[in-house]
Amino acid sequence: SGNAGFQQVLERLECDPVCQRLSLKSFLILPFQRITRLKLLLQNILKRTRPGSEEEVQATQAYDALEKLIKDCNENVQRMKSTEELIYLSQKIEFECKIFPLISQSRRLVKCGELTALDFNIPSPKWKVTTRPIYLHLFNDCLLLSRPKE
């Protein structure tokens, strides 16, 4: 998005009839879609092979290898999404000191959301309650509370 020339070329290519008006993302996901179709094909082959035959053994081995590949792909996709979330969050959060590295290969964001903090002013004769928003970021290894910049 930061490179205007690239954006123009990409828009022109996506409008080209050869691309059938498909976006770049659709072309990037095609290999993964093919892998999942292969799994369906192997399931059908397994249904039609004779039990105990050499073909069944080979098809089962291929199916198991394909399932492992799909599982690895899904784990890598999740890892990349997690890293993207951490990068986005690190760009939004400003630490007073940089002793806490937010981006780590082992760290992932589990849950985040806005909460309301209640402040009780005790010295006054009437208990006055003030509220302010805070944000909770739960990672797999730590909990981070933040507040909007004033």
UniProtKB/TrEMBL annotation:
Gene Ontology CC terms, in alphabetical order: cytoplasm; nucleus
Start and end residues of each DH domain: 1-76
InterPro entries, sorted: DBL_dom_sf, DH_dom, Ephexin-like, GDS_CDC24_CS, PH-like_dom_sf
An MF annotation (GO) of this entry: guanyl-nucleotide exchange factor activity
GO terms for biological process, alphabetical: intracellular signal transduction
Family annotation (Gene3D superfamilies): Dbl homology (DH) domain, Pleckstrin-homology domain (PH domain)/Phosphotyrosine-binding domain (PTB)
Protein's name in the database: ARHG5 factor
Gene: Arhgef5
